[in-house]
Amino acid sequence: MDNKDIAQAIREAASRLLAEGAVDCVIGYEAGTLPMRERPFFAYTPEEAQRLTWTGFCCNNLANFLVRRPQGEAGKVAVVAQGCVSRSIVGLIKEHQITREQVHVIGVASPGMLDRDKVQALVGPEKVITAVSEEGEDLLVEGPGWQERLPRKKVMRDNCYTCVQRNPVIHDDMIGEESEPTHGGQIDKVAAPWEKLDTAGRLAAFAENYQDCIRCYACRDACPLCYCHVCFVDESQPQWCGKTQDGSDVLTYHLLRAFHCAGRCTDCGACESACPQGIKVRRLTSKIEKDVRELYGYAPGLDEKSVPPLSAHKPDDPQGFIK
Amino acid sequence: MSDKILNKDQAASFLAELGRERDLFAPAVSQGKVVWAPLEPGQEPLWRFSNTALSPKEFFFPQTECLMRFKNRQDGEEGMIMHPEPELARERALVNMRPCDAKAFGVLDLIFCQDQMTDDPYWRDKREKSLIVALACNDPCPTCFCTSMNCGPHAEAGADVLLVDLGERLLAKGVSDKGREAIAALPEADEADLAAAEGAKQKAEAAITTQVAMDNIGGREVMELYEAKHWDRVHESCLNCGTCTFFCPTCHCFDIQDETQGEQGRRVRNWDYCMSWLFTQHGSGHNPRGAKKDRVRQRFMHKFSYIPLKRGGEIGCVGCGRCVQQCPVNIDVREVVRDMNA
User: Fold this and answer.
1) Residues 6+ apart with CB under 8 A from B61
2) Which residues in chain A touch residue B324, judged by CB atoms under 8 angstroms apart?
3) Reduced to 3 DSSP states, what percent helix, strand and coil does chain A have, rounded to the nearest 5?
4) Minimal C-alpha gap between B231 and chain A (Å)
5) N or C: which end of chain B has fewer CB within 10 A?
6) Where does the 4Fe-4S ferredoxin-type domain start and stop, copy by copy (chain B) (predicted)?
């Protein structure tokens, strides 16, 4: 099935669920007002469901909206979920933010999502892009009086190269066929570029990576893990984190957020897709993902049963760090 | 006659003259992005670019700005006495600012410096010591809608000088007294130059393909607009992040805090944003904008209803399109205004 067929099947599934009254709302993607800007859309009627779409630019993690329900917490919703989004849903169930019964998962295999900034950079930052369409493994990019063909492989989001779970881990409807489970990239080769640096080197690399951060918190707000009612950066009594652009305040925000995501992050890349400054937010979370995998043999969101390592206590846990 | 001509190959000496008494800044390409950067002596400014990613409001309203310093002691003569920070030491010129951004600062003047009681010395100091040399847009982006927002690709408001790119030459229009003085030594433009500039202006305005009507908004009761049904949908996908406000040249909300470290203390002002629940949280625990819908509505009502009502028809938006480009969930202000105007 190509994207158009998948989009049509999503619309049909959504229409059916809404017409039957099985769900109150279907959360999916619709075309945005600009090329490469597919955006979250909430369909409440079969007619609205006709606006749903599916392309390689469906980059928001829609599990985010299960804990930030637009119409309150009541009722059952359906959500369009590729592999990483389904893992986030599993995580939210494990963390008791939602129940399995509240959500109807419309599963879709991820083709590997695309990075609009990479497309823009490849055709030239000054060129105006008026249309982008996917043709198999190619991307046809068009502007006034020009067109260019780019291989899809060159413009995927960084996290999609190393994805280990393209197929949804849970689903109530499956749209299209399941695909190869991974893209085959080696996450450990790219996960932690800072590992080999000493402490001073890490600090310098950190400062460089985050120097453009404007603390808009788009990374936090796009993340389905960041559902705290009051985020630590918004706490005012006491205030844990300074509000300024000083390096120490920026560092505190990013380091603490990354640690809050330890053992929970599914590497969905929503933070990087949301960042308006193009910051490699995953530089930190990837390292922590690797540590959790190596130290605890755990990868988040792959099944509904296993216990997240940082949520569990065992009497024989190593306690050498307690001084 | 205030219209002059500047040959691009003489721009360096013109800028060197400007730079004798001033620090110069201009858009430049850095790591694939167009950013504001110091213009080094002899360096050719960028003539072809759409606009800088972030707006230049940082020059007048830094994201983090120390306002005062104090000694963090309860006792002693100096204890808790506030000392002002030094003013801007040198004048500066901001070269090749786009007209939409220049216009934005004209709008913000109405807010930071309203009257005797509301007269922000930090804003005023930097504004008075800055010369804005705007560069008209000849190739607007598809996200531009400035002509619908009391602005335009060749708009002059807010600038001191407006440059119009005519190819090898630039037409330099003196807009303010300060601007006319800065270009006084340049040769006069002739009729053909003026005609070419007018042609470029018309072509640029015609290239703005998005029109956003505002004509009904002013006529509608504020409460009717406030309670309109469409707000129930606009906010649904909003993440309540600060991207739109931080990229916006006219968004200007801030938070002031005192920070202390040992005996050192400072009063610091940081950008804040109406999308954040914390921005309106009262000490009592009550929050007048407690729900996401309230906050999203606020941003649009402020720009397109409250500011026009209170500031003589000025709009709190210049149509630069940055929020359209950057919003992580593609909430498009043009669609929202269309709904408001419907």
Assistant:
1) B108, B112, B122, B123, B252, B254, B271
2) 33-34
3) 35, 15, 50
4) 12
5) N
6) 227-259, 307-339
